[in-house]
Amino acid sequence: MQRVLPTHAFHVVFTLPSQLRPMALANRTLLFDLLFTCAAETLLELGRDPRWLGAELGITSVLHTWTRELLFHPHVHCIVTGGGLSPDDRRWIGTRKNFLFPVRVLGALFRGKFLARLRQAHARGDLSLPAPTQFERLCNQLRRKRWIVYAKPPFGGPQHVFRYLGRYTHRVGLSNRRLVSFDSRGVTFRTRGSNTVTLAPDEFLRRFLLHVLPKRFVKIRHHGLMAASNVSTRLEMARHLLGQPSATPTRAVQDFRELLLALTGVDLRCCPRCLVGSITRHPLSCAPAPPLPPDTS
What is the mean pLDDT of residues 71-92? Predict the structure, then answer.
């Protein structure tokens, strides 16, 4: 939130076509990385093009892999600044509040970049193909297909989208509050509104485990002005041009218990049983244990 610039922003979603989902299941790390990389490169390339904007955008991306029914549906949510920093770092070039780039141009460029990198991975032997798969035939089919990219300005400003995505960044595909029941029919959970779906236990577990990410996989990434290499340089220049003070926090660092209370409502200083008394810490006694009684048997 400290990196958010005082400008409008766009919410852009890049989705893998359904034909690539079996391949994504067999090559999770590779295809998820390609999804991140190609989505960011698509936005940055169009942003740098003088025909569209001619500036460096700021992008934060978050990976989601599920639908409300827990089906496998890999897609990346991108929060994109409504403008960017000029190549000479002297001007902020803004976009219209209701338009970033044409979605068909975004989709076509994303498709080209993804398929090119997919072919490179296949040529290197890095791609595991689910049988039966005819790779070139699949690529040709995907090249003729329109790839869907969704873009719109976020409601309530960029802070609203960060808060929206923040609720999902470290959660799994199904929250406890959506669980309805577990009985002889199976597991029932809410999907959208008042709708529910009931799955047999093994199918429920299969769908749930589809969304376990590879170990140590980074599901939140920053690009352009938001990249780590630009945070203290070009991002601060953009902030200055937009008339906002430096994002360096001036408040004292909070105790971790205060942060946990603010974020989750869990007060570690409060007794979890009576919810009234406070918890205090005491060192464990290091006194030697008393001797055992003599054996009289």
Answer: 95
